[in-house]
Design a protein that fits this description.
alpha+beta, Immunoglobulin-like
């Protein structure tokens, strides 16, 4: 009887120890996972006219977190003959974006012609380009300016308003001379996050349902305006939203809005918004037609 009771006692103690270890294991696992950055991020489907596959999501790279964990590709040196933002030859240290993508197997599930790569910057600037362009031209992500004249890590960039800013923590450049058109190929500085998103999720309610009538205006807006302004929370936040809390066409007359977009300094001295003199009046009318359509699109 004594042997039986002792065995029962030991068995009961063993159960308690195992239960305690199991609980501690759960706590440890939860704590560890809460600190780990997620490589995938789900995007809310804002569209009414697209039916997405179950579980479709975006892929997100938080560059600063990857750098802290030493998970960025090996650094190399690159010479740009004439950097369009500096206006001169530059020598950089960094890595090719394709190297980072190839280390993340999940990106291969995206169809290049039907996906966007979004570049999100710390100052609210957001730009995008088709995944196929990234794969074909393979931009370079800069971590240090090796040609900084004062020997520092970065040479400051002069913005259109005359302000000098450092491009840190990351700056993305294109090696091919054919990609020096900054209106078509983004050269984002203060870069912190890179997302890959299916087109339907990337543009949401900002995409016109009637693309035949308003598609030209949308693509002109996307290329020239969306980096700073957003439509239904799609786009940048450097400039004001054009749909919230009121739609831009509620407080701007058609002709005045056209003139303002073409040259903001004719309305506001030292305007931060750059001029759009490279756009024709027809282009500007297409953009405004698109904005007016988005206001009534359900």
């Amino acid at each position: 009887m004594v042997v039986y009771m002792r065995c029962f006692f030991y068995f009961d103690q063993l159960q308690r120890i195992l239960l305690l270890c199991f609980c501690l294991g759960l706590v440890s696992a939860c704590t560890h996972n809460s600190k780990e950055p997620r490589n995938t991020v789900e995007y809310e489907d804002l569209t009414d006219n697209h039916e997405l596959a179950s579980g479709q999501n975006g892929l997100s790279f938080v560059l600063t977190e990857l750098q802290e964990k030493n998970q960025l590709p090996s650094y190399q040196k690159l010479t740009i003959k004439k950097d369009p933002l500096y206006g001169k030859k530059k020598i950089f240290k960094g890595f090719y974006l394709r190297q980072l993508l190839d280390s993340m197997v999940d990106y291969k599930k995206f169809q290049p012609l039907q996906s966007q790569v979004m570049f999100i910057c710390s100052d609210g600037y957001t730009s995008s380009i088709e995944l196929t362009e990234v794969l074909n031209k393979n931009p370079f992500v800069v971590v240090q300016d090796l040609s900084s004249p004062d020997g520092g890590k970065w040479e400051k960039i002069k913005q259109q308003n005359g302000k000098m800013v450092s491009p840190e923590p990351f700056y993305m450049v294109w090696e091919q001379e054919s990609a020096t058109d900054v209106r078509k190929y983004p050269w984002p500085y203060n870069l912190v996050t890179i997302d890959i998103i299916p087109n339907q999720l990337a543009y949401g309610k900002a995409y016109p349902k009637d693309s035949k009538l308003y598609g030209d205006g949308f693509y002109l807006f996307k290329r020239n305006c969306m980096s700073c302004h957003n439509i239904h929370n799609v786009g940048g936040s450097l400039g004001p939203s054009l749909t919230s809390p009121r739609h831009v066409t509620d407080y701007w007359k058609h002709d005045e809005l056209l003139a303002f977009i073409k040259d903001p300094t004719t309305f506001r001295p030292n305007a931060k918004m750059p001029s759009s003199r490279h756009l024709t009046d027809k282009d500007l009318k297409e953009i405004i037609k698109y904005l007016e359509h988005i206001k009534i699109q359900k």
